[in-house]
Amino acid sequence: MTDHLEGVPYTLLYTDDVLRAAGKLERFLGFAPVDASPGFALFMIGGGRLGLWKLEDVEPKPRARPGAAEFALSVEGGRAAVDAACTRAWDAQLTILQEPVAMDFGYTFTAALDDGNRIRVFARDGNAG
Fold first, then answer.
1. What PROSITE patterns does this protein map onto (predicted)?
2. What is the rounded average pLDDT of the residues 22-28?
C-alpha cells in the first residue's frame, strides 16, 4: 500500500434527465458517452471521467439541487479555442451564463445544462497565478 491516494478522477453531475443532458453534452463535446442509460452516462475526457447520474438515484441524497458546482475544462489554443467552444455550446443548446471574458486565471465562459449543472471552458492566461 502506498502512502498516498491515487486513482482516475471522476466528476459526477446529478441530473433529472440523464439521456437529455448526455445528448446535449455529446453535441457540445463532439463525441458520444462510452456508457449511457436512463440512470447514468459516462464521458471519457482526457485523463478523467465526467458522469451524469440520475438525481433521484443518488445515495446519500444530496442537500442541494444541481448547479451548485461546475465541471471545468482547460483547453489549449487561447481565446480562439474558448470562443469556438462557446459557439459549440450555443449550437448544443446549452444556456450561456457567462459570455467569454478575461478573468484572473485566464479567458473563460460558463454554460449550463437544462438542470443547472455548469460547464466552464477556459484557457489559462500566461500571467495568471
1. VOC
2. 97
Calpha distance 56→89 (Å, rounded): 26
Pairing outcome for strands 40-45 and 118-124: unpaired
Q: Mean pLDDT of all residues in the chain?
A: 92
Q: What is the pLDDT of residue 88?
A: 97
How many Å apart are CA 41 and CA 43, to the nearest integer? 7
Domains annotated on the chain, with CATH: 10-124 (3.10.180.10)
* Side chain identity at residue 86, one-letter code: C
Residues 6 or more apart from 87 whose CB is under 8 A from it? none
Output DSSP code: residue 94.
Answer: -
Q: What CA–CA distance (Å, rounded) separates 95 from 116?
A: 9
pLDDT at 128 over 80: no
Q: Alpha helices of the chain — where are they, by DSSP H?
A: 18-29, 78-91
Residues pairing with 30 in the sheet: none
Count of alpha carbons within 13 angstroms of residue 60, beta-carbon side: 2
Q: What are phi and psi of 62, to 5 degrees?
A: -70, 155
* Strand partners of residue 71: 119
